[in-house]
Design brief:
The chain is 41% helix and 13% strand. By secondary structure, it is an alpha/beta fold. Helix 19 runs parallel beside helix 23. The mean pLDDT is 89.
Amino acid sequence: MVPSLTFYNKKNEINKEIQSLLIRHLLVNGADSIYLFGVTGDGRLFSNNRIEKIKLINLTLESTGEKIPILVGVLGNEAEEIIDELDELGKKYDNLNFVIAPPLIETKSDLESYFTVIFDSISIKNPIFISNNPKDFAGNEINPKFIKKLLDIPNFSGFIDSFDNINNSRSYIQMINQNFSLLCGKEENFQKFLQLIPLNLRKYCGIIPKIGNLVNIASKLYFCAIEDKILDLHQIQDQLNDVRNNIYDFKIDKGKEERGLKYAFLYLYKDIIQTSIEDHYNITPELKRELDQISKGRIQATVNYLLNQKAIYQLYSLGKEEIYQLDDIINTFSNIEVLIKQGKLKKIIGPYDAETNIIYRVNFENSQLIFRFRTLKSFKYENLIKEKVLFPLLDGSLNPNLEKFREKVKEIIAVKKGDYIFNKDNPPIIPVGNLIYYDETKQLIPYLFSIQEYIHGKSLKNLYDKYKGEIFSFNKSKFLNLFSDMGEILGKLHNIKFNSFQPDIYSLSKEAKSNWLEIINSEFENQIQEAKKYKFNQEDEIRDFIKEHIYLLENETEPVLIHNDFQWNNIIIKDDPIKFQIRGIIDFDNWRIGVRAQDFVRMENITFKVINHKDIKLKFYEGYQKYYNIDENFYKKIDIYSLLSYMKGYNNAMENQGNADFLLAEIKHKLNVYY
């Protein structure tokens, strides 16, 4: 019986998105029932907020399909408050169970009278459990003699205790039967509690693991007890204790579980939730403590370890609304013939990115593949898997100079399912992974998706971060050779030439403008008009800048294939002892037919800006110049295209309510350099 966390905003309103995700996570990780608004679920905070309690009850019933029992904590200080809430909720939901406890404040009144008044006054028939937790309820403690008196009350269905007092424990065990359940609420006592219970009575008992909000360890422990696997029971209890020590925030005892578990859960699903962990990490004021970086790091490492050990069964997102578990994904894609050949699905890792695409690495027995789901509805090329047109250009099987080139492109675009596997005797001119399968029909799932070969290695950025600080001691030559090779790869890509410029790949099937000045002026003006919606006040300076420097682009007459996001995140490297090998170039979502200098914008403003070393930059340009001679105006052209790139980034950030301050500062900087 998992005592669910409660996620809410600063106004104490239930966060339905995260709470729905949590409920589904609990089910996947073995919860037989869910306990709402207990101590772990901020029951005190919501004791007088019935509107939000009802909101979460409805959400939980809907998310579980009413297939498992739901318990609701009803906490308060006055018997009249408890009676009123039990009657209201019980009449509204005849399928709910309730948990009541002693008053939250120290009381001199007789607890026996307190509970007797409640049971005598309610008119509902819902099952009711009593929780005994003196530490959290102002020292108010219930004794076994009183519990025995309640056994004849039809509503009274069970008792929750910590099992610290062995004599009381034996008294409770004698009361167990099919109408009275006994549950342990203290995680470190689970194994001791379950072994105290005679084997034939364990099916009437239960455990209430707070850690169940994250992992399935407690579920395994319970079933070991049911099957009387004593050795396993001890081992799993030790594992559970270790996980608690690494997840909970023990710096302050009170609230340690809530603080640690909320952070761990938000970290586990940080890519699905998309907004930052801090936006949703709200804790009851009396339990709040800002987690230090060491604690955060420990929790993150533990979550990652538990995932690798399969102690957590994770949910996966194929879009913001659709959440799947592993079995769902296996079943969904089980009829794709090429996947059947990969053998048994072993592991799913990700998502890596959830802005334009949701991306997973999927490990099979025989291979590792990348699944990419196009989930951003506003993405301009949402209805096309671009690699199916790009890859034939890379190995020359689709030649831009052929007479029927446009007709061939139309034919490729019309095909909605397929693949593109490179011939080993005719490899692509730059290293890319095979397109194993793609589907644009949206019949299997409501998104376009592609499956590509996984390229083993690290991104150049990750590689640089690994060696940062020691690059120019023993790795200088390796990095210099690497950047020279990168320049050559970009030069090879730009050797694929066309008869006209194209803003997107759909246009490859029709005639397009060959006057680059018209195209670039139009793109700048479009971005200026878009920026004006956001009270952007630099449009005059930008127009003056373009007017003054447009002459530099007059000789841009050769359309070439450009990656349009060529930078260190999209270059995959294998770290061999002798040299760094470029294993693949990824992410062709923005490729187009443009001009050479455009493809240097991201390298200059992302990669070289961080590395900031003239030898590395020089080697990159030297490698490129094996294919194209760069004149003195080339770098000025990069500045022009950089300004356009920052404009596009600014407008995109404003549209999606992102952080546009940095981009605005870069726009102003580019303008100031020339004024």
